[in-house]
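FYI - complex with iron/sulfur cluster, inputs then prediction.
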Amino acid sequence: MKNAVPECAKCPSKICLLGPSDEGPKFCPMNTTPDVFKDAREVAARPEIRKMFRGVARTWKDSGLSKDRIEEVMIYADNMGFKRLGLAFCIGLADQAKVVSTLFQKRGFEVVSVCCMTGGFSSDDVGLSEDDKIYTDGRQPQCNPVGQALLMNNHQTELNVLLGLCVGDDALFIKHSQAPVTVLAVKDRINFHNPLAAIPEYKKSLGLKT
Ligand code: SF4
């Protein structure tokens, strides 16, 4: 069953919450690929990874599970001993980026903030065909998440915070960032950057009850 595909999203029991178990459904990875968890424990035993795990747990405790995500990012960064934060933001969220950057600085962090338009890329820089452009009358700006990540790397940020990058730009940023990445907000043009607002409608259309 080595290649059995986990389908935790469809698991009715979530018995893993209670500890290691073989009582999950047949697709449960604890039954089908137990060796993976041995490997995961070995990774978690590395000091730098262990520190990150503990950083999360300490953030739960220190936040009392009752803080907003902006606050939690700062608590986590404190717990990890990170002093220099990267803020990679979308130009459409420049106002929010200014607030977050100012707040981080007031709380004692150094902030390296980089806009998605840095470097002045256009879609021609990435060989986009005319047919694939949405701006057909001239230059189509292209976000530059690779440039954002490389600037962060140059400045040796210790934690990079994403603010509103487009789907796929976030993937490129994460792929090129040397520092760990956390997401403060994602881009969702329809739902005020809260993609989960769409869930009830999808749930209804899919006929799902739970
Ligand atoms: S790990 Fe197993 S028990 Fe946990 S959610 Fe996935 S299938 Fe369910």
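The mean pLDDT is 96. The chain has eight helices and four strands.
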